[in-house]
Amino acid sequence: MTTQQVAAISNLRHKDLLGISDLTPDEIVLILDTAEAMREIGDRPIKKVPALRGKTVVNLFFEASTRTRTSFEIAEKRLSADTLNIAAQTSSLVKGETLVDTALNLEAMAPDMIVLRHAYSGACHLLSRICRAGIINAGDGMHEHPTQALLDAFTIREHKKRIKGLKVAIVGDLLHSRVLRSNVQLLTKLGADVWVSGPPTLMPPGIERAGVTPTTSVDEAVEGADVVMLLRVQLERMQGAFFPSLREYFTVFGMTRERMRRAKHDAIIMHPGPMNRGVEIDSDVADGPYSVILEQVANGVAVRMAVLYLLAGGVEHEAAA
Amino acid sequence: MKRLLRGGRVVDPMNGRDGHFDILIDGDRIALVGKNLPADGATVIEVPAGFVVTPGLFDMHVHLREPGQEHKETVATGTASAVAGGFTAVACMPNTSPINDNAGVTEYILQKAAQANLARVFPIGAVSKGSNGDQLADIAELRAAGCVGISDDGRPVKTALLMRRALEYAGMFGMPVLEHCEDPSLKGEGVAHEGYHASALGLRGIPGVAESIMVQRDVALAEVTGASVHICHMSAATSLRAVREGKEHGARVTCEVAPHHFTLTDESLAAPVSYDTNMKMNPPLRATSDRDEMLKGIVDGSVDVIATDHAPHHYDEKKMEFDLAPFGIVGLETCVSICFDRLVHTSLIRLPRLVELLSANPARVLNIPGGTLSEGALADVSILAPDLSVTIDPTKFRSKARNTPFGGWQFRGGVAATIVGGRTVYVNEAATGAERFQ
Predict the structure, then answer these.
(1) CA angle at residue A99 from A96 to A104, to 5 degrees?
(2) Rounded-to-integer distance, Cα B260 and Cα B302, Å
(3) d(CA B228, CA B178)
């Protein structure tokens, strides 16, 4: 951690992780530093520590997810938490129960933490008001996906040894992306120069107020970039015509090897997945030498272990144990 | 029975009065207004210093929810809420279940209002059958049953053609069309004002132009037909611009603004981030520039009416994800306090202008008597307490519903008592001296 920021604090004073917007730069760095230590656990022959022994963590997923849910579950198990998974199709939501009632029923069984993914923005805020359990946001609508931004930052820091001063280009379906919103919060808090690019119809209104530079020119965004992050075109969240066709989208906004030449020679390519190959990203780029897409997935486990550990009490928790 | 309200400050802009007068009420009518009236057998009520006597306030945009949605509000609870808010009359919107698109529903509402015997209720009938925007409702029958205007509120009138015909047809009776202006395609699935805050919160936006594009359409149609259109719950600066232009060109267009739209902005969603569904209403809380333009319109006269868009919902319905919760907040019991605090005590307007906005103008827009303290008029009188210190406590609302963003807010100004047809229907125990009106 030579040139990296080192956390000036040793604990998170939060019950929940609802979004990056609630975190200070110091807290972000603390999570990233803690994740460094957590990653080592995954390299051991016995990948398990007792940090969350006796804690119950519920993974409550109201939207399909493979990567994030698996990543959380592995992280929880490596910390020895008792975990259970509730997916929307098996919950009583199909019987017409409200989110609040589902949460209150879970709460009655005294879980320590609830990891929530939900199709609507603000669902985690709603739960945090009614639950004693800590709420971890695993993606709420178009609002935030904080652990994704944290694992992205972890991956960037690993390659670039810093975040401050880097030019980061985020390209794709900006409007519907919770990954964008969390990354914009995090990267601007840590001093990156963030450019966002996509069709004007998918540009969130007022985004310039978030401290980023919006442009519809992908070439301009990518020019001299240290990091190029692509966002999935979220066809399932789109109503109406935002662009003429996927083919035209690829022509105008797709990331090709040719476009990547404008970035720095050692730029890294990121994507939160799942990828639409041939839409926002050419396979050449996704599978190319600068792609860190699978590293992002690997780092997700360590970052989520850090979040779970710190929210459960971190250092204080261990001292009391 | 005669009652003499003696010595209070009387603000009655229609009669050009703002000063200390006595008002003699005989039965349900105002018998005399003047200085030093003899008691002449009447019960004398000395109006406490600091109280203001005004013509009965009239909220021309209220959802009473009955028939069909009695879990949210009933005519009885809604009119109890009205009189507690200083209103002697309300106009109720037709989006009940069933829709008030026929005389039977109108008569039912009026029967419930007569049973409640609190505020006067003036039903608004539907423009189209089922408010579906396809076929005109039986407007003459609605009028005969007691409707004073027509609206498909909650929805805009779907096509320009139907709006034109509604204006022409209702114009025959001198009835205005009250329009909920909103282009459905521009609104889409939006739940908050389109702008930075909605973007940051991941909420789909409703742009101001979704409203103003239809205001422009309706102003143009009012001009062509010569009939009266009234723009409901206006929120966007560009809408007010269209209204002003229409007025300049002689179109018969009037408009109303709700207290939350001249008080709050979309920043309320973000500070702090809570996804509080009591901040969810349609039209949404807009940008500061829009809010400021609404205030400007209230000051310069281009806004005709303040109406609350009182939209009660059951707490279960609001305790939901922001996207899933219904639009709307209650307004009857907070309106007067907000108006005093934000408009009068800030010196933006003077009290006579406020009485115009809350009493005389809504009566004029709907062509109904009221809004004055003229001799011979119905004795609908609001007694206001401009300096009363008020803390909004939703648990004390007379409304069935509690969905307000103003819970815990402190305001200077409130209601002392409400008199409908010469009969005191509400006394605010928190206002010292109000008990005299009992």
Answers:
(1) 110
(2) 18
(3) 9
| Nearest alpha carbon to residue B28 among B434, B427, B435, B380 | B380
- The residues of B annotated with a catalytic role in the active site are 309
| Helix %, strand %, coil % of chain B (to 5) | 35, 25, 40
Burial class (CB in 10 A: 0-12, 13-18, 19+), B167: buried
d(CA B70, CA B66): 6
pLDDT(A237) > 80: no
Contact (CB, 8 A) for B247 and B253: yes
Confidence of residue A321 (pLDDT cuts 50, 70, 90): very low
Residue A173 contacts B where some CB pair is shorter than 8 Å? no
Nearby residues of B26 by Cβ (< 8 Å), 6 or more positions away: B1, B2, B42, B422
Contact B269, B247 (CB under 8 A): no
Angle of the A146-160 helix axis to the A67-78 helix axis, nearest 10:
80
Chains A, B: CB contacts under 8 A, how many? Answer: 74
> Is pLDDT at A224 greater than 50 in this prediction?
yes
- Chain A residues whose CB is inside 8 A of the B289 CB are none
Query: Reading across the β-sheet that carries A134-140, which strands appear in turn?
Result: A82-87, A56-61, A113-118, A134-140
How many helices and strands, by DSSP H and E, does chain A display? 12, 9
The residues, ordered by sequence, that sit 6+ positions from A56 with a Cβ below 8 Å of its Cβ are A81, A82, A83, A84, A109, A110, A111, A112, A113
- Do B320 and A142 lie within an 8 Å CB cutoff? no
Question: Measured between beta carbons, which residues in chain A are less than 8 angstroms from residue B199?
Answer: 204-207, 210
Reported as a single tens digit per residue, the pLDDT across B295-336 is 999 999 999 999 999 999 999 999 999 999 999 999 999 999
Contact yes or no for B195 and A206 at CB 8 A: yes
- Out of B185, B273, B322, the one facing A21 most closely (by C-beta) is B273
- How far apart, in whole angstroms, are the C-alpha atoms of residue B145 and residue B111? 11
Q: CA of B408 to nearest chain A CA: how many angstroms apart?
A: 18
The answer on pLDDT for A16 being more than 50 is yes
Residue A189 CA to residue A212 CA, distance in Å, equals 11
> pLDDT tier at A95 (50, 70, 90 boundaries)?
low
pLDDT value at position A317? 46
The pLDDT of residue B29 is above 70: yes
φ/ψ (deg, to 5) at B98? -75, 165
Q: Under 8 Å CB-to-CB from A276, ≥6 apart: which residues?
A: A232, A233, A246
CB distance B196–A210 less than 8 Å? yes
Find the CB nearest A120 among B185, B205, B321: B321
* A124 min Cα distance to partner chain B (Å): 9
CA distance A102 to B325: 17
Amino acid at site B358 = L
